[in-house]
Amino acid sequence: MGSDAVVYFPGLRVRWFLVAYVVLGFGLLPLYWYQINPDGISYISIAEHYLHGNLQAAINAHWSPLFSWLMVPLFALGIAPVPAAKVVLLLVGFGSFIGLVRLLEVADLTPRTHCVVLWILLPTMLYHALTVITPDALTVCLLTWYSYALLTGKPSSPLARGIICGLLGGLAYLAKSYNFYFFLGHFTAVQVFSFIKEQDGAARRRLVQTGVSGLVVFGIISAAWIGCLAQKYGKPMVGAAGAFNFSLLSPQSKGQPMDNAGFLEPPHPDAMSMWEDPAQYPMTPLKPWTSFEDMRNLLRTVAKHLGLLIINGAVLMISVLLLTMYRRRVALPLLAGYLLFSCVLYGSGYLPFPRDMRYHWFARVMGLILAAVLLDRIAPTRASVMPRPRPWHYALMFVCFGLAPVAVLITNANASKEYYQMAQELRARGVHGRIASSRDSWHASLYVAYYLGARYLGHEAPNWDDAALARELERFGVDYFFAWNWDPKRTNRVPPPTHDALLSRFREVTGGAIPELKVYACKETGVRIQEVEHRSQKSEDKSQNE
Fold first, then answer.
1. Disulfide-capable partner of 74 in 84, 253, 436, 502 (CB 3.0 to 4.6 Å)?
2. Which DSSP string do the residues of 507-533 spell out, in sequence order?
């Protein structure tokens, strides 16, 4: 496609979509200036370890390093961490947008369909960059360009093409450990399929060159990081995030450790919370190959989540288009087959974990291009009835692929700003050091502690009485205890214990300045554990006598 072919309305070209992305991205940035999430806090903290040369703390099996590496130069320039992370994601999104535009050229869509896809990609890329701090946006960028290299055969040299694919695959692994398995399976499968399909001997030799060089480069990059992890953890591993997430599916699992284990010491002196390196905490491994109960639980979870995925609008639309092609005997284009394979393979590994849409970002953008290719492919087959996709087809495509990004952009505006404001109020009142909190407040307390620059030890375990809480406050050396007002809109659980008798012995710091929160200075008034236990025992004895 030449540059003049990418004209949809007078004066409207692809570059104006890129300009709109940059203007809107940096224009909307103040609305997401304070947005933070637990994973983002960990990536930011790890980037700060790299900046200060603390490699022992920075090398981490749970959080892959590339996203943190990209933030380090901006930190060195003095840019605040959260805005720096957003700037990195905006730049990554720009790279993704260009890569997807190149894929759309490969798809050779009709001008109208091409334009509609660009209008959907614009809010989608903004949503990836602004609403959550995550390396999944990096995955979209790297795997998009990897797909472009495979589909176009560029560069033309098979050796150079293999090196480019291997490099992009290795970087994708450094962005997220899940991509190690995806690239290995996807690249190998595509090369084998192409080899079987190709009959020319010279072409087959070129495919072998591409495949071998790609796997060698990928292997070198992967081995370097796997070696770093082995040096720290004492055993070779691709990453720990997958094992951690799968352990939550074990019938013996008690769930996330921060939900039920009570206070947890961060994994090293420079860590902010236990979430900086969850691999350091014991979990019950899932063993589906040796335990029938574990396998049944895994299959049941996958079946439930597969049903939820099928009723997803994007998957439903693609399914209807594929069924229509089958019934009309329309051949599936090679590009469509590639996109479908990429969507299915990437999404399959996340079937047990559909709780977060960001896991499926790459599959969704590939699915958008697939839907556009199928729509254009089907429309001309009944030229007398439907000479081209009609407006309602494009409206349906926007509902399936573009509505969710727009909705999240709107609902996430000014996210976490209240926690930043709370932290400013508490800093003015001298709150610092080691923070713990009441039940069902892990995320809110973590965000406030982050903006305070404090260490967060977690919230109380279920069913702790005053004596247990007093003992743990002393054992962990807690400086301040956050007691959040129970909000039935925030949680469906029963109200947690208030511990009024214990907390009344400490000074309350806020003086009512923060309606949702009371903060108690735990070290200003000594509370003898024996006294609390004695009082608790007397209360139990009295209840039994009555």
1. 84
2. EESSTTSSTTEEEEETTSS---HHHHH
